Amino acid sequence: MTSLSRAARATRALLPFLILLPVPALAQSPLACTIAATAEDAPQYAQPDDPWIYRGTDIPVDEQWLFGELPNGVKYAVRKNGVPPCQMSLRVAIDAGSIYETDAERGFAHLLEHMVFRESVYFGPGEAIPHFQRQGAALGYDTNASTSPTQTVYKLDLPNATRASINESVRLFTGMVTQPIISDENVATDVPIVLSERREQAGPARRVQEATTQTFFAGQRLANRNPIGTVETLEGATAETVQAFHERWYRPENATVVLVGDADVRVLASIVEANFADWEGEGPVAPAPDFGDPVAPAGADPANPVGEVKVIVEPGQTRALTFAIMRPWVQVVDNLEYNRRNLLVQVAGAIVNRRLETSARAGASFLAANVGRQKINRTVDGTFVAITPIGENWEAALADVRGVIADALSHPPSQVEIDQAVSQFDVAFVDQVEQSRIQAGSQLADQIVQAVDIREAVASPETFLEVFRSISERFTPEQVLEATQEMFDGEVIRAIMLTPDPMGDDEADLRAALQQPAVASTTARESGEAINFADLPPVGEPALPNLREPLGILDVERLTFDNGVQALLYSGDNEPGRVTVRVTFGAGWRGFDGDEAVYAYLAPMALINSGVGTLDQNDLDRAAAGSKLGFDFAIDDGAFVFEGRTRKEDLAAQLYLFAEKLQNPGWDPAPFERAKASVLLGYDSYNRDPNGVLNRDLDWLLRNRDPRFATPSPEQIEAATAEGFRRTWSRLLSQGQVEVAVFGDIDREQTVEALSRTFGAIDPRMPLTPDVANRPLEFPEIGSGPVRLTHEGDADQAAAVIAWPTAGGSAGLVQSRKLDLLAQIFSIRLMDGLRERAGAAYSPFVTSTWPLDGDTGGMIFALVQLDPSLVPAFYDEAEAIAADLAENGPTADELARVVEPVRLRIERSSTGHTFWLNQLQGSSLDRNRAFYLQSLYSDYADATPAEMQAVAQRYLSARPGLRISVMPDEQASAAGGR
């Protein structure tokens, strides 16, 4: 769900300053803990010359990996990687997911995933997660698992890894996966937790997903194999039946172990072999079930093979339509030519999607549409076409989209279109090569797991780039046309339409619309030539900074321009090809008047897409072709934020794009109208489940019903005008101080020159008026709760929040860090009380927010989804935890379980420039942010139970928690809620 507080991270006006601070200890020297091999590290079953994942292919072996296969059938892949330093990433993938279940076992693969963490040969009940937390692995972030239809994967990312800790962790994980304790008591403990998770997933989204799956994969096992299972099969699970599933599929022949770490590959391979070599399966190997193939209905017209179709009526949901051309999934020979062909198809798909977007921008009958080829769960090879119509006329939207596709199937694209698509792919592949040296070990481990799942090999980024460029002569109109035709070739067509009301339309109408001949439309073809940023009008008169000085921390330099713009520069070569530009400006939420909430709400979709200067969206796309540019936008409590991830050679264009947005914003009304249509289509979905209601109302309630934070009603959205949007944002874009932070792999002098031509050239800013600059963020007064909201969805779903106000401001940064730890301790206790002991809720959590741009607005709050009857129990549990933390504080072990993961995450994150950008954002105008950075590490690492108790006494005992609940509307549920 959305952030529950739009926490400020922007600037506060202060006089210029120069501070000289000690460099934080964690930044002075990089961590160094690479584990070298010894004579005893001699893996017996490694395959340096014949890796199992490359057999039968001509794809060049990525020699940074070492592969091996044990006599018992366990396959492994290991790799030395020091990103982050001193970390190990372990993956144990079992080639069995929900699609392997019998009808009576539905949900067992996922249930077993829970039980593996419950108890095992080396861990007593509930001991595994706390053990790894004490080692520095955060639950959900470093220690996790996932179940898909085809695979169950267990994950551990362990910081501060030594030879001993890697070996011990692999040993413990081996015991968890191979020898879990599957007792009646443990089944009885975990089934309610899984049912709670199932209840959280219930509602319209799951009903739509299940109906869609049943339609698209009709006749195949995937059609009714949702990993969450059914209530009947889960409640019927016994230790004996779950154990049988484990024995059948959790076998060495079905296991792949991936270990990536800051160690010699021989060390890692020897550890895997030592811990997995003795695993033996019982009895003969069970063959994988037949997943089935998509088959056209008997008697279907081969010329127009529309098969299964379904209209899904789900009140409150956005109207949408998807049709698919289905082909059987076939085990491919993953060779170079196969990948070349895939790349041609990807380019063809990118051109079609570009045309669909152009058509939508020009006012077509659909809000959005896209096509994509996907190979799903080793079940189908499908091309899926997703359409969001505008209004009720879905037939027109379908016809428009099919018209664009029909044109792409009958006429070759222009070379201009091809070149634009190819340039974007080339940039992406070059970026992958540049980033490969700093790719995290966890990502590398996940890539192997995914490759095993889809039955394909892996390739280095250099190989991908080489293969892509090797087919440059094949990117011709004729060959791309052929690839487009291949993409839409198939003998089975299936479709679903989601509608909030029946409208008189049924499956026969949908089938008939799909069987109508498509009329090719040429209006979306791209014919415009490329646009070069260097040829665009200047932002203004260039101006060099009038002051350049060290910030006083790290090697950050602070620049001041005559127009008042401040800049922070930080250069480093440890992240080649990676640069982040972040612009903070203006007043954020403080800058809006009470009647302008609608223009804030529409801005993320409308503001960026409305263009800059004389360039509209399509012009900007052409200008960005062949470049790595970004344009993220956020509204914080005290500032607006532009952010883009770019590279050194595109930095000047990135700065131009942001500066021109402030100096000469475009006001194309089309994106504004499109944004209105989008939010109107989705508004009714807010009331269909507890999450939707919280997304709509929680910010508003926690901000004392401040109208700026209220989600606009459909009537307010309808009444909003493009002129009103322009008037509001013209003011907001022009006021308040600007800070530009450029961190990463930069040439400093070239960056200063680019800043002089862009942000140094913008007009002086309008100052914030005192009433805006000092506008507080208010928390509801004592006695204003409890608040009871209702939703019109499932009768067994509810959500509850309890919140306490804290404070804000950069002077309280140390206090905010203690609150972070307190919230995590609170969360562990709430998880233990509601999930582990009672099975009442799957994922309760507690978080703390602390705005930096004002002295108010912070809060600590807990949120949970659960059965309506258990809402009082949640409040009782939360209040009891709050009272006990204030009276007694946490135990030393509780504190260690949250401090160690935070401490080690700081050490790991500090190797990247975005860590320092996040810490120093706003420091050109607010000295506290840099000053308190020097204590960041110790504020967490040296925290004591007494400090936690004092913080709890100050904030959790000062007043009762504000209670907000979202309960089912009994009348709505009786009338049609499910």
Any overview of this molecule?
It holds the Pfam family Peptidase_M16_C. Belongs to the peptidase M16 family. Residues 1-27 form the signal peptide. By secondary structure, this protein is of the alpha+beta class. The chain has 4 domains: 52-276, Metalloenzyme, LuxS/M16 peptidase-like (Cytochrome Bc1 Complex, Chain A, domain 1), CATH 3.30.830.10; 306-515, Metalloenzyme, LuxS/M16 peptidase-like (Cytochrome Bc1 Complex, Chain A, domain 1, 2-Layer Sandwich), CATH 3.30.830.10; 533-773, 2-Layer Sandwich (Cytochrome Bc1 Complex, Chain A, domain 1); 779-975, Cytochrome Bc1 Complex, Chain A, domain 1 (2-Layer Sandwich). Helix content is 40%, strand content 16%. The protein is built from 33 helices and 23 strands. Strands 12-13-14-18-15-17-16 form a 7-stranded mixed beta sheet, with helices on both faces. It has a 6-stranded mixed beta sheet with strand order 1-2-6-3-5-4, with helices on both faces. A 5-stranded mixed beta sheet has the order 7-11-8-10-9, sandwiched between helices. Strand 12 (547-550) and strand 13 form a beta hairpin. The protein is globular, with a radius of gyration of 29 Å. The two termini are 22 Å apart. Residues 1-23 and 973-978 have low confidence and may be disordered.
What are the salient characteristics of this protein?
single chain; 978 residues; alpha+beta; Cytochrome Bc1 Complex, Chain A, domain 1; six-stranded mixed β-sheet; 23 strands; 16% strand; globular; disordered N terminus; disordered C terminus; Peptidase_M16; Metalloenz_LuxS/M16
